[in-house]
Amino acid sequence: MTSIGTGYDLTNSVFSPDGRNFQVEYAVKAVENGGTSIGIRCKDGVVLAVEKIITSKLLKVGANKRIATIDRHVGAVSSGLVPDGRHFVSRARDEAASWRSTYKTPITTKDLASRMGGYLQAYTLYSSVRPFGITAIVAGWDSELELPVDGQVGSGPSIGSGGKVEGKTYGGPGLYMIEPSGMYWGYYGAATGKGRQTAKAELEKLDLAALKLSLQDGVKEAARIIYVAHADNKDKEFELEMTWISNIDGPTKGRHQEVPKDILEEAENLAKKYLEGEDDEETKDDDKPAEGDKMEE
Amino acid sequence: MNHLPQAWGRPRDDIYGAYDSSYLQSHGPNQHTQQPIVTGTSVVALKFKDGVIIAADNLASYGSLARFTDVKRLRTFADTSVVGFGGDVSDMQYLDRLLNSLDTEEAYSSSGHTLNAQNLHTYLSKVFYKRRSDFNPLWNQILVAGLDGESKPFLASADLLGTTFSSPSLATGFGAHLAQPLLRKVAPDEEAAAKLSKEQALEAVKESMKVLFYRDARSLDNYSIAVITKDGIDLKENEKLEKQSWAFADQIRGYGTQIN
Amino acid sequence: MAAMFSQNPLMNGPNYSFSQAPTTAGDGFKQHSFYPYTDNGGSTLAISGNDFSIIAGDTRSTSGYSINTRYAPKVFKIGGTTSSQDDATLVLSVVGFAADGEALKERLDTIVKMYRYQHGKPMSVKACAQRLSTILYGKRFFPYYVTAILGGLDEEGKGAVYSYDPVGSYEREQCRAAGAAASLIMPFLDNQVNFKNQYMPGSGEGHALQEREKIPLPKNEVEDLVKDAFDSAVERHIEVGDGLQILIITKDGIEEKYLPLKRD
Q: Of B225, C21, C64, C181, whose CB neighbour count within 10 A is largest?
C-alpha cells in the first residue's frame, strides 16, 4: 500500500502527486470483499445473480433481498457495503421516476446507468463525503415495441410525417456496471465482488457477444457461475438470489422479477451437479494456482 | 416590419391585437379546472359469473367537435384491473400516469402481492375526494372493474366529487340514462349477475353501446371492450359496432329539416 | 389587408406580443363554477328504547332522477377492532353527500379505534358523541354536508341516540329521522313514539283531554315502526327505496337486518 503514511489518502477528492484518488481505491477494496454479483446479457433477456453470504443462522432464508427493482423493467444488484447499495437503489428509483415524469416514457438502461454514473462520480469530488463502497450492476430490458408515452391515448398517424418508420427496431437488453469512481461500461457479462475473477473467466467462455445465449440457459449459467465463484470461499454458507427481465414475449413480459422458485431450484441443482463433476477432475490434477486478488493489480 | 429574431413567428399586434398575457399573472386567486375541455362520453360495465365486462367508445370530443377518434379510454392496471374513464381526457392521462407510478412502486417489493380492483378503487376515490376538497377537481367519472380480495367480480364507480358506489351493472354519463336500464334488465341484482354467462353479458354490453351510439351525439361506433376474469384481461381496443339499424331514424319527426 | 399596413399610432409601429408587459385581466375575479357538493338522497332513522337502540337507513343512492345503485349502506358500525366490525359497540348513520359521509365515517372510525387501543376499552356513546361534534365543527367553513345520527347504549345500558346538524350542533334524543324523507317520517315518529297529539278518550271535558301516558316501547314494536316508516316514505319520496338496513344495538352486540323495499 503505497498510499499509507503519505497523507494523500486521508481526504476524499484530493489527488496524490501521481494522480490517484486513494479514497476511491479504498472503496474498491470494500467492493472486493463483498459477495459476488453477476449479470448476463442474453438474446431475449437479462439475468442478475448474487451470492448472498449468510452472516447468521438467525436470518430468515429468502428474506433480506439484495437485488432491487428500480423501475418495472430495470433491476440492480451491488457488491460491497450493503447500506451504500440501498442508497444507490433509492437514488436510482428516484432517477427512473423523475425521468418518467419529465419524458413520459420509461428510462432506458443506458440512461439510468449514465445518471447513476454521474451520481457516484459526484461522491469523489467533495471532502465532505466518501465514495460509494459498492460496484453496482444495472440490468434492464428496453421495450422492443414502439412505446407510447405514458398516458398516451391514441396511436398517431399510421403513415407519413410523424407516422411509423418501416423496419425500425427498438429496445433490447441492457447491462451496465458502475464502479465507485463513477466509471461505468456496458457489458455482455458483468461480475463484481469477491469471486469476480473466477466469474469473469467463466463469463468469457460463454461467447456472450454473439448474443446467442437464451434467457433460460442464461439463468442456469448464472447459477453455475455463482456456485463456481463461491468454491474459492467454501467455508462460508451462501444463498443464491436471482432475478431476470425477459422480452415482451418471454416469461416476465419485459418486467424485472424474481426467477420463479422451480426454475431457480433447477438451476441450483444443475450448478451443484456441475461442481461435483469439477471436484472429480480437480483431484486428478490440482496443480492450478489459486486465483487471488493480487493478479488484478 | 420588425426583423428581430424575437418577433419571428409571432402574431402581429396590428393585425391580431396585443397578446392577452393576463393568465400569466401570478397574483390574484389560484385558477383551477372549472370545466372539462377534451372529453370522453359514457363508460358501461356489467358483472357476470366469472368476472366483469367493461366498454367505452374511442372518441374524445372538444365540445361538439369529434376531436380525436382513436382514444383508448380503458386503462389496465397490473394485468388484473381495468379503469374506464369518462370526462376530461387530460385528467385521465394524469391518473393513468399516477397509476403507472403506483404500479412501479408496488413492484419495488418482490412479495408478488398486487393491488386488486377494490384496492385500486379505494385509492382512486381518495385521490378524487382530496382533489375536490382542494377545489381542484379531476374532472372524471370512472368505473373500476376487476376482482376483489376474495377473487369475486368487482365493479365500482368514483367521480370528481369523490362519490363512490358499486352495483352489478354501472354506466357513466349518458350511459346512466340509456344503458343502465338495459343492463339492469339482465342483471337486476347481484344474484342475477352471478348467473350470467360471459356471452349473455357481452351481448348486453354491446347492445348498450349500440343504443348509446344511436342517441348520444358525442359517441362513436368504434369502441374498446375488456373482459376481466381470474385468467387476466382480454382487452380489444378497436371494435366496430355490429348490426346497426337506422330504420328508426326514418320515423323521427320534429328536429331539423324535413318536408312532410 | 388594410390592417396589415395600418400603423397603430399608440404603439409607434407594429408591436409584438413578446414585448408587452402582461395586460391586466378584466375587473373582478373569475368565479369558480365548481361546486364541491351533491345530494345522494336517502333517509335514515334512529329510535332509542329502554335497553336498545335501533338505527336504520334505506340503501338507495341517487344522482338527480337517476339511481346510482340499489345497495349503498348509510348505516355503519364504528370502532370495532376487525374489518368485519363484529366487536363494535357504536353505530353511525350518515345521509346527504355520500362522499363526505364516507370520509366522516372513516375519520370517526379511526378515532374510536385509537381510543380503544389506547384506553383498553370501547369509547362511550357520550364521549363519541362529543368527539363527533368536534369533528363536524372542525370543518365549520367547509362542512361535511351530512346529517349524522349516532347510536349506542349509554353507561347505564339504556338506548342512546344523538343527532347532529352538518356543523356539529347536537342533542340526545328519543328518536330522529334524517335525510330526504325526514319531513315525512319525523311527524309519524312524534305521534307513534312520543305519543304526540294522542289523548285518552273521555278523560276530560271537550278538548281538555289527558295526554296518553308515555311508555318506552318494546323492541319488536319499534322494529315494526321503522319498517312502516320506511314503507310509507318509499311511497311518497322518489329518493327513498330499494332496501332497508336496520342495526339493532343491545347489550349482546349489534344485530344487522336487511329487508327489501320497493324499487320503483
A: C181
- Quick: pLDDT tens for B146-190: 999 999 999 999 999 999 999 999 999 999 999 999 999 999 999
The torsion angles phi and psi of C156, rounded to 5 degrees, stand at -95, 0
Structure confidence by residue, pLDDT tens digits, A177-216: 999 999 999 999 999 999 999 999 999 999 999 999 999 9
Please tell me if residue A71 touches chain B, with a CB cutoff of 8 Å: yes
* Phi-psi region at A74: left, alpha or beta (left = phi > 0; alpha = psi -120 to 50): beta
Residue type present at position A234: K
Q: By three-state DSSP, how is residue C59 classified? A: coil
Q: Mean pLDDT, to the nearest integer, of B134-138? A: 95
For residue B140, list chain C residues with Cβ-Cβ distance below 8 A: none
A153 touching B, CB under 8 A? yes
Q: Which of residues 15-54 of B touch C (CB under 8 A)?
A: 15, 18-22, 24-25, 28-29, 31-35
DSSP conformation letters of chain B: ----GGGTTPPBHHHH-----GGG--SSSPP---S-SEEE--EEEEEETTEEEEEEES-EEETTEEEES----EEEETTTEEEEEEEEHHHHHHHHHHHHHHHHHHHHSTT-----HHHHHHHHHHHHHHHHHTT----EEEEEEEE-TTS-EEEEEEETT--EEE-SEEE-THHHHHTHHHHHHH-SSHHHHTT--HHHHHHHHHHHHHHHHHH-TT--SEEEEEEEETTEEEEEEEEE--S---GGGGG--SSS----
C-A interface (Cβ pairs under 8 Å ≥ 3)? no
Q: Residue B221: how many CB atoms within 10 A of its CB? A: 17
pLDDT of residue C1: 39
Task: Report CA C86 to chain centroid distance, whole Å.
Answer: 22
Flag whether residue B140 sits within 8 Å of chain C, measured between CB atoms. no
C21 falls in which pLDDT band (50, 70, 90)? Answer: very low
- The set of catalytic residues of B is 33
Which residue matches cell numbers 359521509?
A: C101
Give the CA distances from residue B132 to residues B115, B163, C33, in Å, rounded to whole numbers and listed in that order: 24, 10, 13
Query: What's the ipTM?
Result: 0.85
Spatial neighbors of C16 by CB under 8 A, at least 6 apart, are: B2, B6, B7, B10, B11, B12, B13
